[in-house]
Amino acid sequence: QAFAAQCAANWIYESSPAETALQNKQTFIDACYTHQDSYRNAAVGDARPSEVDAIFAGIAEQAGLFNTTTTLQKQDFLAQVHDWDVAVKPAWVEHKQALAWGVVSTPSHVIDGKLVPNTESAWGPKEWTEKLQTLS
To answer: Which of 12, 68, 77, 103 qualifies as a cystine partner to 108, CB 3.0-4.6 A?
Structure first.
C-alpha cells in the first residue's frame, strides 16, 4: 500500500494549483501518517486495488482536500490515481531514486543526495542539530 499512497500523493501534487500543490501533498502525507492503521496489511487483507484507492480517497477527504473550494475532487482522484504520467511514473521515479540512494527501510533520511545513517523520525531539533554537525 506504500506505493499506492505514493501514487496518490503524486496525483494530489500534480492535480493541485501550483500555489497549493506542495501544501496539499504534505497535508495528504500527514493524514496518511495519522490514519496509517486504515491501510496497513492487517486492515486491508486481500482488498482489491479499487478498495485500497477508496481508503486513500477517504483519507484525502478527511484531510479536507476534496471540497467545493478546491480543484481536487474525489471522483477525479479515483479515476486518475493510476494514471501513468500524473501519478504512477512520478512515484516510480521517486522509488528508484530512493533505492539509488540506498534507502531500504523507513524511516530513512537523505540530505544533499546522500543517505544519512542512524536517524529516527521522532527526532527533534536537538538530535538533528547533533547529527547535522557530524555531516559537516
So the answer is: 103
Cis status, amide bond into 117, omega within 30 of 0: no
Each residue's pLDDT tens digit, 17-65 = 999 999 999 999 999 989 999 998 889 989 999 999 999 999 999 999 9
Q: Using DSSP, state whether 110 is helix, strand or coil.
A: strand
* Angle ∠(116,89,97) on CA atoms, nearest 5: 20
Report d(CA 7, CA 88) in Å as an integer.
Answer: 5
- How far, in Å, are 10, 31, 50, 133 from residue 26 at the CA level? 10, 8, 23, 27
CA 89 to chain centre: 14
Task: Kindly state the DSSP code that residue 3 receives in the 8-state scheme.
Answer: H
Residues 94/57, Cβ–Cβ less than 8 Å: no
In degrees rounded to 5, what are phi and psi of residue 107?
-80, 150
Residues 49/4, Cβ–Cβ less than 8 Å: yes
Contact 103, 127 (CB under 8 A): no
